[in-house]
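Practice problem: predict the structure.
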Amino acid sequence: MSSSNLSGLGPHLAVRLCDDGVAEVVFGPPGGMPFADAQGHARLGTIWRELQTTPGVRSLLVRSEGKGFCAGGTPEVVQSMLDSEYARLRVMQEGRAIVQGMIDCDLPIVSAINGAAVGAGAAVALLADISVAGHKAKIIDGHTKLGVAAGDHAAVLWPLLCGMAKAKYHLLMCNTIDGREAERIGLVSLAVADDELDTTAREIAHKLAQGSPTALAFTKRSLNHWLRMAWPAFEHSLALEILGFAGQDAREGFAALNERRPPRFGADA
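Answer:
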């Protein structure tokens, strides 16, 4: 295994190229809680195309060396979106690029979901072609609790994975979904014991790397037309999410999160 020379990955993201044709996209730091900082969030929108054109890479494995998969955007990223229209528009463009990049990538993508996968972390985890969750994984789309629309992937993906009734229930309630429940409702491909997670996900990525590149790519392209048909819903939800960051509810939600208290939405300013 060797480290990639891809530039601009940031402290929370690394790429490792394996000898068997698998490239690993790794959240970190080891032992800490991975986040998507400004640099990492931007790179998540471009890394899929770069790896697809890297010689010798046949499949991708997204995993974490931290105590969770990825807890979403850093507080600094959220604060910048509350304060700056420029930041909101930049993040909207990056959010679109993450979803489109993973859908359009011809390489099969496997995710190994350990611990918390929130926001952008949940998007990457669930947009993988095959998602493997540990039993103690915690998948959370935290947008509505923050006071903004669930817009970075959920409107296009969750109804197809687990059905509209479950999608509405979990997204509106902002529930925490563990690995077993995520598998039961179809939100992830597979749930395994936590100590088997990395081995299972690696085995799947390795097997995919040995498969027919054209057969796998063409199958993925065809299946992902279901997501492309729902693209107007994604664009609408993403725009409404970004619009929400300019409003009072997002400021209250972020303040409540920082102060570790329930938000008081709709209260007089």
